[in-house]
Amino acid sequence: MTTDIQEWERQLQRELTEIRSNSQQLAAAIAVVRGHGEVRGVLVEVDADGEITDLQIAPGAMRSPGSQLAAVLRDCHRKARADAKAKVKHLVNKADPRIRDQLQRLGSEQKTPDERREQKSEAEIQDADDAYFERMNQQGWRT
Q1: Which of 77, 85, 74 is nearest to 132 (CA)?
Q2: Other CB atoms closer than 10 Å to residue 130's CB: what's the count?
Q3: What is d(CA 128, CA 26) in angstroms, rounded to the nearest whole number?
Q4: pLDDT tens across 2-24, in order?
Q5: Contacts of residue 91, Cβ cutoff 8 Å, sequence gap at least 6
Q6: Entry pTM
Q7: What is the pLDDT of residues 69-103, one digit of tens each?
Q8: Whether the Cβ atoms of residue 37 and residue 72 lie closer than 8 Å to each other
Q9: pLDDT tens-digit readout, 96-134
Q10: Is the Cα torsion angle 7, 11, 12, 14 positive or negative in sign?
Q11: Do 80 and 44 contact (CB within 8 A), yes or no?
């Protein structure tokens, strides 16, 4: 009986070592993910968390009215975040099933009630962004 328990413990240690290694590989792969969005001379690059890591604006785009440039920047940022999210999802889908299943379970548990509702369409998001920035431009920006 003692040998069965010892063998079980050794097997458990091997599996834990393997899961730990696979988890570190996944984390390293996700750390280098970059998403890109490009629209009319504006390029936005984001990391896996959606944080902007690079922003390039062509001189011609700078001649656009401020509200138009702001809309293009928001559109690029949205596209870049979607690109990064898709890349992370692809990496997770290819990951060790023991890790993937836990990440998916964790992701569904961490969503707020608002996040569990149906996602807005791109047009709805754009309309909401436009309304917000129009309101801020009329009322004035406060810091």
Answers
A1: 74
A2: 14
A3: 35
A4: 678 999 999 999 999 999 998 89
A5: 26, 29, 30, 33
A6: 0.66
A7: 888 999 999 999 999 999 999 998 888 888 888 88
A8: no
A9: 888 888 887 877 665 555 555 566 777 778 888 888 888
A10: positive
A11: yes
